[in-house]
Amino acid sequence: METSIITDIGAFLTTAKRPLLVLVGPTASGKTALSISLAHALSEEGKTVEIINADSRQLYRALDIGTAKIRTEDMQGIPHHLLDQLDPKKEVTAAWYKREAERVIGEIRQRAHVPFLVGGSMLYVSAIVDHLAFVDRADPSLRKTLRKRLQTEGPAALFAELQELDPEGALSVDPRNSVYLLRALEVCLVTGRTLKHAKKKNTSSDEDLFFMGLALPREELHRRIAARTEAMFAEGFVEEVSSLLQHGYSAEDPGMQSHGYRDIAERLQKASVEEVRRDAALKQAITAKARQYARRQMTWWREDERIRWIAPSPIPQPGALHHPLPGGEGRQ
């Protein structure tokens, strides 16, 4: 970790009236490890930091291994918020997240502590740092029509339509996540605008941002993503999905649209847990989708001049997903 960044954050906190620390970066880049390190370093300077999750998948209960959700013992006494908030059957929206995150940020400030937003969900981070005001103009009949089209035409056709309507907004949507895909297409069709312009910026906000981003060479990021996939399978990713299915959840539930969960759930319909755990092709497919997601993340953030890009810590060895933080890569 750069020692200068602690000095710079300290200087920022002495002058900022409404400070908000923000850390983004592609999947598997080391956001969790760095956020814990920064929080500890700032505590030595007399600043108490509380972390707010900005990963949409980690909002769901019972989705732990596959979302790389930090464990309580790895938090090292640093308060964390907006983890395990929703049942996997419930749909989550950026508008809901914005309300909850702003509430938590306000409560942290009432304690005279420093809020620290950490995560990789592009629209969710933007909802806070860009002060988006979401336009809610749901059309039930259109939603029904789109669901029927999803069944008959498939997600590829609907995603292609979204790309035509809103090429930039499509970057934030996983075409296999039917919940987000239908919602994004519905917003574009109902409002006649792109996702970005269907949301309004509240320019009256007086947030003071210290905006950081983790960046690393593509080859190293790919190694990290592959190592994470292997570690997740070793820790019981397949068993976690199997347990969810046994408790009544399905591959179609909103929470199960998260990376890897639906893939494993569908595979478990045809094979045993042991067979799925050893499925090299499945691991490769999940790794490839994570790489694609990382590319979309960096495309979203690359041109944001507010972000101070920093290098992460060295890549962990395979199986190091739960090494103590800081010091190992840990969950990210």
From TrEMBL:
Gene3D superfamilies: 1.10.20.140, P-loop containing nucleotide triphosphate hydrolases. Keywords: ATP-binding, Magnesium, Nucleotide-binding, Transferase, tRNA processing. Residues 312-332 are annotated as: Disordered. The record marks 121, 143 as: Interaction with substrate tRNA. The keyword tRNA processing applies. ATP binds at residues 25-32. One of its GO terms (biological process) is tRNA modification. Residues 55-58 are annotated as: Interaction with substrate tRNA. Its cofactor is Mg(2+). It holds the Pfam family IPPT. One of its GO terms (molecular function) is tRNA dimethylallyltransferase activity. Its EC number is 2.5.1.75. It catalyses: adenosine(37) in tRNA + dimethylallyl diphosphate = N(6)-dimethylallyladenosine(37) in tRNA + diphosphate. Substrate binds at residues 27-32. Monomer. Belongs to the IPP transferase family. Catalyzes the transfer of a dimethylallyl group onto the adenine at position 37 in tRNAs that read codons beginning with uridine, leading to the formation of N6-(dimethylallyl)adenosine (i(6)A). This is tRNA dimethylallyltransferase. It comes from Candidatus Peribacter riflensis.
